[in-house]
Design brief:
Layout (H helix, E strand, L loop, with lengths): L14 H12 L8 H24 L5 H5 L25 H5 L14 H22 L25 E3 L19 H28 L21 H10 L6 H11 L4 E4 L6 H13 L11 E4 L3 H14 L7 E4 L5 H9 L4 E4 L1 H10 L10 E5 L1 H4 L2 H13 L5 E6 L6 H5 L7 E4 L10 E7 L8 H11 L5 E4 L3 H13 L4 E4 L5 H12 L5 E4 L14 E4 L6 H8 L9 E7 L4 H9 L6 E5 L3 H46 L1 H6 L9 H11 L1
Parallel strand pairs: 2-7, 2-8, 3-5, 3-6, 4-5, 6-7, 9-14, 9-15, 10-12, 10-13, 11-12, 13-14
Antiparallel strand pairs: 1-15
Helix pairs in contact: 1-2, 5-21, 8-9, 9-10, 12-14, 16-21, 17-21
Catalytic activity: ATP + H2O = ADP + phosphate + H(+)
InterPro entries: DEAD/DEAH_box_helicase_dom, DEAD_box_RNA_helicase, Helicase_ATP-bd, Helicase_C-like, P-loop_NTPase, RNA-helicase_DEAD-box_CS, RNA_helicase_DEAD_Q_motif
GO molecular function: ATP binding; hydrolase activity; RNA binding; RNA helicase activity
Amino acid sequence: MTFEDNDQNFKIVEEEEEEDIVEEEKKTELETTTPSKKKRKAEDKRKEKKEKKKAKTATPKKNENDKDNEFDSGFTFAIDGGGSAGPAHAWDFTAAKSMLKEAQPNSVPRTDIDAIIEKKRQETKAAKKKKASKKDNDEEGTLLNDDDDDLALDGFGAGAVDTEKVDEDDDEESDTEDDESASDMDEDNDSDADAEKDAEAEEARKRAYFAPEEENQTEAHEAFTSMNLSRPILKGLANVGFVKPTEIQARTIPIALLGKDICGGAVTGSGKTAAFIVPILERLLYRPRQTAATRVLILCPTRELAAQVHSVAAKLGGYTDITFCLCVGGLNLKRQEAELKNKPDVVVATPGRLIDHVRNSAGFALDTCEILVMDEADRMLEDGFAEELGEIVKACPKSRQTMLFSATMTDNVDQLIRMSLNHPSRLFVDRSNQAASRLIQEFVRIRAHKEADRSAVLVALCRRTFKTRTIVFFKSKVAAHQMKILFGLLGLNAGELHGNLTQEQRLEALERFRDNKVDFLMATDLAARGLDIKGIDVVINYNMPNQFAQYLHRVGRTARAGRNGRSVTLVGEADRKMLKMAIKSATAGSQVKNRVVPTEAIQKYKKKVDKLTPQIEEILQEEKEERALRNAEMQLQKGENIIKHSTDIYSRPARTWFKTNKEKKQAKRSSR
């Protein structure tokens, strides 16, 4: 049977389909329907069946494996190599959370700052409602739920002006003086000559210390398959989602497989973690299996970075029989001791907890260590870790392979001698003082008489422009905590990450921010190094850090692996030197901008901050009282446990320490 169709989608309908449609038409409840309407209805049903049949033949049924391998259109590849087409997050804190200290059944619950903030907000709302019932026309408007903020949005990136020099034209201080005497010029020439001689001597020392550059030249590798890696390692790389080696990975892996010492540097987000983990896993596949031994030690400066490295290493080695152990502070000590007794192949640790285990854990030693890796090595080589590192290096065999990596890695020979490197290969992919190529650096000038407006400027930026996926860095833990309270009172969803939190709270804060459960993360420099959180749009520096390397690490949390990112820094009058260094760090093609926050917006939010200051003080006082009460109850429980289990407690051998807290504080004061 044939018929004409206006859309010309089809001309012939099979007899079976025609019979089905006729039967459906007979069963219709609308008996008064005209023949023309019936015909149109039948044609619509024929079209629908035909389209379904066509779709079935055109798109075959997908199996589960096809879904897993489906390309994510939202992914951005790095133009300089690397990237990930796999899972959204290459790491998690599953292992670290499983090792958290178990809460005692009768323990006092910790103070929940979010609950205190919410209670204070509800009290304020109730007071406002009561006040509004007495006065209908409130001139000041609602403080906490200010809907008119959304009416004056300036958009992401708006309000910034391109400039090569940020506010340097109206600098009142002159860089040079006209009345400079001839004698002063002669002295300057002499000092320049001495500086040149010192630089030449230093270069000669470096040439003698590092391996010749020709030894560092390797074959250009466009894929991991050309590096002669074993199949389990390639499967692990595919599982994490690495599709192509970055430059630091392509240069490091072949040399590390030869067992040479390495001093490597590359910008943040360039894949340095995989650069040292892949050759380690490849070498461990051929280890003797007769006796278990700890052959690899990876040191990290912070607990969170160590947990991240441990997670990435475990996923890359997921198809091998290599065992891993995480040893950091804040986690269950007994659990770590039990795992170390089994002699794991790889130990990822922070220096303090590692020395604790070396001194006090029976059966654990570093005399079988074949590879020592230091992630964020420049931080580890600073004075704060110098003595601890010396203790660890003494405990490791001299014949080991040593690898140092950092985004701001130094080639200072005096510092590297501490690690007893043996003619190391110097692999510096980028300049050590260079920001990422796709980072847009913005600066907000805070004049000397406007220092009190910093918090208002920050709130204005976060309420008007940068509303999600933003990390805010502070110099102190107290400032980060107070700003978290302020954001909570303003209705902004924020978390905090600093040293005053428990390990459980720190891990939870990172995961909540990573999973988009909070929009803002108030952090200290604890979160500045190594942490890889995809999708961070903006990094805001509430204060310019004292060291330029720390600035690079902070802004390196965004614009990672070839993605775009933005940093906004509040710059005071005392930060001019750091500002000039930041401008110089910009690569060719990257942008440096001056962001101007409208004065009206600053004044508006300054009034809000001033009104909320008494509430912030009340919350801090309430939190302090609850903490004191909790500490008193903990001391009471501790005394009861000592009385109850005194025999077991005093029968244990006394733990020894490399340095007590008191000695550490004294050493810190003397170093200043």
